[in-house]
Amino acid sequence: MIIMSSNILSGVDTVLDVGQSWITINALIWLWAFGFCHLLFMNTSDSEEDSYNERSALVQCESPTIPSYHQDHDMSLPQETDTKRGRPVSSGLDEPGLVERERAATPDGEEEELTLKYGAKHVIMLFIPVTLCMVVVVATIKSVSFYTEKTSQQLIYTPFKEDPNSVGQRLLYSLLNTIVMISVIVVMTIILVVLYKYRCYKFIHGWLILSSLMLLFWFSFMYLGEVFKTYNVAMDYPTLAMIIWNFGVVGMICIHWKGPLRLQQAYLIVISALMALIFIKYLPEWSAWVILAAISIYDLIAVLCPKGPLRMLVETAQERNEPIFPALIYSSAMVWMVGMADSNNPDSADERQRNEGGALAQEGVESEDDVALGGRRRCSAEEDLEEDRGVKLGLGDFIFYSVLVGKAAANGGDWNTTLACFVAILIGLCLTLLLLAIFKKALPALPISITFGLVFYFSTDNLVRPFMDSLAAHQYYI
Amino acid sequence: MNLERIPNEEKLSLCRRYYLGGFAFLPFLWLVNVLWFFREAFLKPTYTEQLQIKSYVKKSALGLIVWVAVLTTWITIFQHFRAQWGEVGDYLSFTIPLGTA
């Protein structure tokens, strides 16, 4: 009894492994399905702001409303005024009715200025959670070896095993894996769009809840187990059960119901990090890079092309004037609907309220833009609606950014590369937000950041690192 | 969710639900309740529901302290006596540290 295996579950390992992959698969399904949930149309309440598609869009849901937006351009929307108060750029797609109701005149020039001013603050508001998520992932990768140990087990989405001996075969298999993964994602997105079109809201809600249950309980259980093993800490089942139970239940409450904003944001960051860690562990080496690239391209297509599933989802939601499930969306601004007394569309109001409840509860972590900010836009008297716009970024984006940086940290463990990727992603995010402010429509957040990240990773790994190493070896300081 | 923006009745109901929820072995929920509603209960000018919110916050804090005491005691006992308990100790353990007796 003096020296025992640290893993008392050794016999159960294989079972856990299988269980893990099963669970991962399910988690993926959820995430993917929701990944594509755009916040674009968060709902009238947020519609004005930038809602981001889970995966990618820094979206200012605007497409359908653009015509009305321009028409009523003079009536400047409270958005502009809000912007003045530091509110998020409200570009959004607001329900047309709502937009018309809330117009305040503002000159164009001011609008432009306000838009940009508003942009900087929101960039910072997104930088912080993205950075935190990456920090968590990198810290875990560096300290807990579990996530860098390659297992023979792979996700069902990447069925081809890469053979490290043959470059050609490896390349081919990673391409095949990517194709499988992307098709799974496309299929799931289409299923989601179809479900949404046919108003199977309960089903989608249930899916979402199940997936977050899995993330909050099972993955965090695995994570804790690995951390305890790494730090050689004895932990008993009762205490562990209490910890996981508390963490999971409070997480579910915060994410799906009502909870303090900061806690909600923290939970979203944590689940993104957990998911990213799972990806880092279970995606084969080369496949992961190719998948990252492919996802960015897919994102670009899905969000911007007229026939893209995400775009269709957004448009459907806009037609119905209802918010898309703010599932897995991190929002830096609080969207708060205090009773919708919408005389124009009572149905949508009800729906919105229903969805709002869901929205608030959901991953849409809405943070109060600035509590001190006095100005909350008020709708016309008919609607007792308060909105605070903010910037929203899909959790899928968090996850992929973290996967990229995590893999950079895992391979070789060189800090130069990791930092370079981190900076690249932030630059990409900045540029995307800038484009968002300019174009005022839903934009995919992945392509620019991931492209920069990949470019920086491969160039730093292959050019800068050897250079720095030989400089250090020759003690030559520049 | 911003507490500023919801009416007092809802605040009360939220506080109450968090308080009741904490009885399901959820001291963390009580902690969140205390931290979140602390300002509402004690630092804001009085309003009708504030008294009740205060009571809930106090009760949550009490429950929290009790739980913390219980858990701390158990953890201390476990960590100290785990090795001596032999089989029971192993049975209760999720992870066992390497290289200790």
TrEMBL record, chain A:
<dbReference type="GO" id="GO:0000139">
    <property type="term" value="C:Golgi membrane"/>
</dbReference>
<feature type="region of interest" description="Disordered">
    <location>
        <begin position="69"/>
        <end position="110"/>
    </location>
</feature>
<protein>
    <recommendedName>
        <fullName>Presenilin</fullName>
        <ecNumber>3.4.23.-</ecNumber>
    </recommendedName>
</protein>
<dbReference type="GO" id="GO:0007219">
    <property type="term" value="P:Notch signaling pathway"/>
</dbReference>
<feature type="transmembrane region" description="Helical">
    <location>
        <begin position="264"/>
        <end position="280"/>
    </location>
</feature>
<dbReference type="GO" id="GO:0016485">
    <property type="term" value="P:protein processing"/>
</dbReference>
<feature type="transmembrane region" description="Helical">
    <location>
        <begin position="443"/>
        <end position="460"/>
    </location>
</feature>
<feature type="transmembrane region" description="Helical">
    <location>
        <begin position="171"/>
        <end position="195"/>
    </location>
</feature>
<keyword id="KW-0333">Golgi apparatus</keyword>
<feature type="transmembrane region" description="Helical">
    <location>
        <begin position="20"/>
        <end position="41"/>
    </location>
</feature>
<keyword id="KW-0914">Notch signaling pathway</keyword>
<feature type="region of interest" description="Disordered">
    <location>
        <begin position="345"/>
        <end position="374"/>
    </location>
</feature>
<dbReference type="InterPro" id="IPR001108">
    <property type="entry name" value="Peptidase_A22A"/>
</dbReference>
<dbReference type="GO" id="GO:0070765">
    <property type="term" value="C:gamma-secretase complex"/>
</dbReference>
<feature type="transmembrane region" description="Helical">
    <location>
        <begin position="286"/>
        <end position="304"/>
    </location>
</feature>
<dbReference type="GO" id="GO:0030318">
    <property type="term" value="P:melanocyte differentiation"/>
</dbReference>
<dbReference type="GO" id="GO:0055074">
    <property type="term" value="P:calcium ion homeostasis"/>
</dbReference>
<feature type="transmembrane region" description="Helical">
    <location>
        <begin position="324"/>
        <end position="341"/>
    </location>
</feature>
<keyword id="KW-0812">Transmembrane</keyword>
<dbReference type="GO" id="GO:0006509">
    <property type="term" value="P:membrane protein ectodomain proteolysis"/>
</dbReference>
<dbReference type="Pfam" id="PF01080">
    <property type="entry name" value="Presenilin"/>
</dbReference>
<keyword id="KW-0645">Protease</keyword>
From TrEMBL, chain B:
<keyword id="KW-0472">Membrane</keyword>
<keyword id="KW-0914">Notch signaling pathway</keyword>
<comment type="similarity">
    <text>Belongs to the PEN-2 family.</text>
</comment>
<dbReference type="GO" id="GO:0007219">
    <property type="term" value="P:Notch signaling pathway"/>
</dbReference>
<dbReference type="GO" id="GO:0007220">
    <property type="term" value="P:Notch receptor processing"/>
</dbReference>
<protein>
    <recommendedName>
        <fullName>Gamma-secretase subunit PEN-2</fullName>
    </recommendedName>
</protein>
<keyword id="KW-0812">Transmembrane</keyword>
<dbReference type="Pfam" id="PF10251">
    <property type="entry name" value="PEN-2"/>
</dbReference>
<dbReference type="InterPro" id="IPR019379">
    <property type="entry name" value="Gamma_Secretase_Asp_P_PEN2"/>
</dbReference>
<keyword id="KW-1133">Transmembrane helix</keyword>
<dbReference type="GO" id="GO:0070765">
    <property type="term" value="C:gamma-secretase complex"/>
</dbReference>
<feature type="transmembrane region" description="Helical">
    <location>
        <begin position="18"/>
        <end position="39"/>
    </location>
</feature>
<feature type="transmembrane region" description="Helical">
    <location>
        <begin position="60"/>
        <end position="81"/>
    </location>
</feature>
<dbReference type="GO" id="GO:0032580">
    <property type="term" value="C:Golgi cisterna membrane"/>
</dbReference>
